[in-house]
Design goal:
Elements: H1 3-16, H2 27-40, H3 47-57, H4 63-80, H5 87-100, E1 111-114, E2 117-123, H6 126-137, E3 143-147, E4 152-157, H7 159-175, E5 177-182, H8 185-192, H9 194-207, E6 212-215, E7 219-224, H10 227-241, E8 246-249, H11 255-268, E9 271-276, E10 281-286, H12 288-305, E11 308-314, H13 322-327, E12 340-345, E13 351-357, H14 359-375, E14 377-382, H15 389-401, H16 403-415, E15 417-422, E16 430-432, E17 467-471, E18 477-481, E19 489-490, H17 500-508, H18 512-522, E20 528-532, E21 541-546, H19 555-573, E22 577-580, H20 593-607, E23 615-619, H21 623-636, E24 638-639, E25 679-681, E26 691-696, H22 702-716, E27 719-723, H23 725-728, H24 733-746, E28 749-752, E29 763-767, H25 769-788, H26 806-813, H27 829-837, E30 848-850, H28 853-865, E31 892-894, H29 897-917, H30 935-939, H31 942-945, H32 966-972, H33 995-999
Parallel strand pairs: 18-23, 19-21, 22-23
Antiparallel strand pairs: 1-2, 2-4, 3-4, 5-7, 6-7, 8-10, 9-10, 11-13, 12-13, 14-26, 15-26, 16-25, 17-18, 17-24, 20-21, 27-29, 28-29, 30-31
Helix pairs in contact: 2-5, 3-5, 4-5, 6-7, 15-16, 16-22, 19-20, 20-21, 24-25, 26-29
Amino acid sequence: MNLTNFNNHLKKIMAFVGAPSRSSNNVDEVYLFDQMQNNCKEKNESDNSDKKTMGEDINSHNYKRFQKIEAQLEEINKKLGIQVQGKQLQEIGMKQSTYNNGPITDANSVTELADGVTKDALEMTAIHYRLLTPLCNSFNECIVQFDPINRALNFYGKLSLIRDCQTKVMLEMRKLKDETIVVSSEMMTLLSKERGKKYLDDLNSSGLNGAIVELGNLCVLVVAKEDVILSEAVKILEDKLNFCPIMIPKPEIPLERLKMAKLKLEYTLLVYVSFDDNKREIQISGVKEDVMIAIKEVNELFEEYKVYKRSVDVLGRGAIFLESFLSDHLIPLSFGSVEEIKFQTTKNDNVTVHLKGNRFEMQQAHSLLQSEANTIQVIRWDLFDEFTRHEVCLIANSFKSGVMKAKLETYKYKTKSLFIPDMSNMSFFIVSQANKDNPWNNSTKQISKDSQTVPKISSSSAESKSKLVFEITAECQLVVKSYGDMVSILGPDLDMRKTRVGSTFCSACPSHLMELKKEQKIQHGSPVVTIQKPSGLNCLAVCHVILAPWNPKKSLQQLNVALETVFKVANSLGAKSVSFPPMGCGRAFQFPPLKVAQQVVDSIRNEKSATVLNKVIFLALDSELYKGLKIEAARHFKSAVVPPKLVTSGTRNMAHDSEIQCADMDDCEYTDIVNNFLDVKCDSELPCHARITVATLNGNTVNSVKEIITDDIRKQCLHTEPINPRLMEHCPRESWLSILREAIKLSVCLKPSNQPHANQGEFHLIGEKHSVAELTLFIKHEYLERFTRVKKNTLTSGSIPKRGTVEFMTYAAESYESFPSYWSLSKSQSAFWKIFQVKPSNENRNILVDVDEETKDAITKFVTQTSDLHLVGLGNDAMGIKYSHLKVTDVKRVENQELFEKYRFERKILLQKMASRGHACEDIGKIPGSKGRVATSELLSESMKKELYHEVNEHYLFHGTKSDAIQNIIHNGLDPRLSNEEAMFGKGIYATEKMTKSDQYAGN
């Protein structure tokens, strides 16, 4: 086909596919048509050369466009039967690419493209172009395209037409108004995100009434065609973009929950969220609309954790048990986010419930609480209506620490019930005489608290409570107690809260601290601040002793002054008793107990002549202080005998130990246990009670629950078994002590049988079943060990361990000898058993007993051998004594069971002590500085040495005294308090190995 035919066919094909004519306004299409004509003129070039050139020159940027054109030409080839290829296609593709997308290096340059088609450019920003887009699209004379890279508006067409279009564009550009809005860096970051760009696009579309906004460098550029539109747009943008950060008080929300909320808000909204823990604030900044949305979501989050408080009244008798049922999970209520429920008991057994948490959950909780309270049934059950006095005592102990205490939890979950025991004052018991037919009933003395057959309901063990009484004068006693609380000791700051007793004062009498401060100003500088007739307290006065922490140089003097001041105040007020606390021996002041004990006794001695007091009570909770007072008081005062008191109805004052009322506390004491068995019971007139409050749930009737627990109480607490009378016959006193103490420990009552034909000594054991069984075994053990084997481990046994060894000391400590074998009591079995049936008494038999001839001869011999006639009359103590010969006329042995039993007990402790150390006491003769062994033991006959325990340095010694003191000594023993204070080593018991020395004190 020739070129002319090709052109004709090409025109037809172009017309077929929509190709423009020469008069077409579509410059791109005309240009493409011209290029296709020009390219067809080069058709005759070889295909191989063209393809090679095409493969080498076509760049990747225009390859896709070239492929499209090639596809179009292939379609034309099919129509015309010709082929345009090679370099022609390359040139077409390259020129088309350059025209549409190619870079413009000079925006103001005019470029001639082809056949009168010109390209020209006008500098313009994108924001201006957006406003002028409608104008640019309206041009038909030329084609207008915006180049965002080079910020230019390109015009394609005839130059004259381009100039006309450019003129119109420039005229419109002059009308445009622009302004910049400075924004924060955080806002720039937000707007630079995809969500921020979309936000600006949305504003440009419809939010600014024709104005256009564009993101600049730390600013936002706003362009509009009119000043009014620009002004309104700037105002809108400043309100939206320069919105002040919002500060919201931060409630108590978990940090992890806040972090999750922050991530969500910053992901979905154009906002920044930050926390300020110091100011407890949440700061939200960003685009105004999104900030408001974020605030709403944060407030909704706060609602989940916002704390509301509400107080509601729960009515009904069972309301007071709601708290217990809830805490024990007997009421399976779910209160959701209610974080706090406080119960406050009001009048008529109603309860005010203080709720704290979510409002909805609080309302729901209130409804549930009231509903459950209405289903609770309550009774108060008096045990004395069902049981006898001694049974109630046992039940009370079981509820405190026995089987019933453990069973309360079982009852609780088994019956959905609460059991609240109230055994007020059930710790007080008295002793009544046993049946007159009982041969052991020869005393009306009371059993001590250490010997009760029914244990006390107390936090302290009975053995830890003890009391010492000394005679200061004939009218005044010193009482040292290891229990109870008295008056207050304060520091210089008068802060009563720093000591336990002071805190108790504050709680018992709230106005006391104000009174103390007032009196301190009046009595400024005094070591003791006295409040007379304090309000709310039943006493003449309270003396607050002001002490400072222990100072070795000053504290004892300060303590002495304080004690003197207290005694003067007590005497001036006419007080009959005064009570002291441990006087600085606690944690607050840390005074040494032994030094305090010495100072206290010295102060009492100095005041005894002027005192009008009947009783000085000293509290010694610390064991070291108690021992110190015991030792110091014993050196200077005689031990007082506490007369036994039989407590009868209406005579007993059941005052509790307290910080103030201390005068009545000593009336609650008991004397030591006596030999006869006494029935222990609770006095019927004592103001004590034993009740159990029962509250039930889930429709359980109170009476059915009561029946269940009553039956169980009888089975568990009041199990009764008789004891074989033979086990109790001729029971020695020491065994009774052991049995009664074991009964205390096990909470078992020994009750004489009330059967009309019961044998003498027949008893019943009442208590918890396992405890009764244990006590029965214990009684049998006592019977076997102390009755049938009473002579076990004696020095007169056939085989004993080697003397001086640890084995022997252990053996001797376990000895059951109640007195030496050579005593007259050991001569007959009847006498031996008799001493256990009644309390040993000096009035019932002779204490001074004749010794056998062997003993008399032995003592006479070593009296003679230890006499040194050259020393007679020498020394201050021997002045006036003159004799040249001494004759032993008689020898008597003192057989005082009571004294020897005490002595034997202390000797047993010493043997145990040395056995635990692994060696005997060092021989006196071997101690450095000693002049030899004890002379009396060296000269004593072997028969008399046999039952001496030289392992603990037990020796016979001489003690000289006047004849008028003999009776007191043989009945009561040697008393160091009656000795001379001016003796060489002070008060004490003096004995010697030389008869001559002791004779100096024997008088005429």
